Amino acid sequence: MNVHNMMEDLVTAEVNALYDQVKQANSPWLTCDCKNCRLDTISYVLNRIPPKYVVSGRGVTHSNEIFADHQLIADISAVAMDGIRIISSTKRPFHTLPREDCEVHKEENPHYNFPTFAGTILDGSTFEPISGARILLKLDGKPVDMVDMTWANPTQTFLSTKGAFTFWAKSIPAEKTGESRKFEFEIEVDVEGYEKTYNYFELPIISDPTVKTELNTACSVKIRDIVLFKREIFDEDKKEEKSEK
Ligand SMILES: [Zn+2]
Q1: CA separation for the pair 64, 60 (Å, rounded)
Q2: How far is the CA of 134 from the centre of ligand 1 (A)?
């Protein structure tokens, strides 16, 4: 079956339009708007919004729908502007090289390769997704480096991403191939008006002979939903607990 992610069309159009606008406005922070920069921004945005797949050929009617969804377009614009700023302000050594060299750097020695981590931030009383959450991934108490700069840590949730977030941690060198190591990750979630939440998960990884450079969707780990409670509710619960004692 031939499927197509319609978000690609929408995001490509939106990112190109924004680059043209920013360029026309002579914004001093825009350092470059070459094809590589635009592609990096497009992948930055596509990594942060849920895909919408259609069977190829049936896309036309659906694409009218999504192109008319103003809230979706506003959210994509917000993510895209973030992307343009980040890509514009980051010196990338591969910037002038051909596109195939711009992907994750290949290293021909043993590494622990991580799957992508996907999760959702929900409100504990309504189970509705929360937007505007700041999510930080830590390992051994330190923020984790991502595979490349199109992935952010901390990352954010947006209205259209329905509280979803993803991380792709950078591979860590191993002594040799086939070594097993347990990694203990911590996720810190911060949202205005909510109790700060910490989430922990363990992941045993066996080292591979090289750094894995291709993102394989089969290789994604779904973290259990992270549920946040509004501060007042949390405080009331604490009071109740105390009075029961
Ligand atoms: Zn460029």
Answers
A1: 7
A2: 28
Q: If you search the block for the tokens 């450079």, which residue do you land on?
A: 213
The full set of domains in the chain, from first to last, is 3-101 (no CATH), 111-244 (2.60.40.1120)
Q: Determine the Cα–Cα distance for residues 225 and 129; give it in Å rounded to an integer.
A: 10
pLDDT tens for 205-214 read: 999 998 876 6
Q: Where are the alpha helices (DSSP H) in the chain?
A: 6-24, 35-46, 59-67, 70-89, 231-244
Distance 148 CA to ligand 1 centre (A): 16
Confidence of residue 220 (pLDDT cuts 50, 70, 90): confident
CA of 76 to the centre of ligand 1 (A): 21
Q: Hey, how many other C-beta atoms are within 10 angstroms of the C-beta on 19?
A: 20
How much distance in Å is there from the Cα of 38 to the middle of ligand 1? Answer: 7
What's the CA-to-centroid distance between 207 and ligand 1, angstroms?
34
Query: Mind listing the pLDDT tens digit for each residue in 171-184?
Result: 999 999 999 999 99
Query: Which tokens is 124 given?
Result: 């504990």
Q: What is the pLDDT of residues 133-162, one digit of tens each?
A: 999 999 999 999 988 767 789 998 887 777
Report the C-alpha dihedral over residues 63, 65, 70, 73, rounded to 10 degrees: -20
* Separation of CA 21 and ligand 1 centre (Å): 16
The Å distance, Cα 95 to ligand 1 centre, comes to: 6
Q: Using an 8 Å Cβ cutoff, are 233 and 125 in contact?
A: yes
Task: Name the packing angle between helices 6-24 and 70-89 (round to 10°).
Answer: 60
Give the integer Cα–Cα distance in Å for 139 and 183. Answer: 8
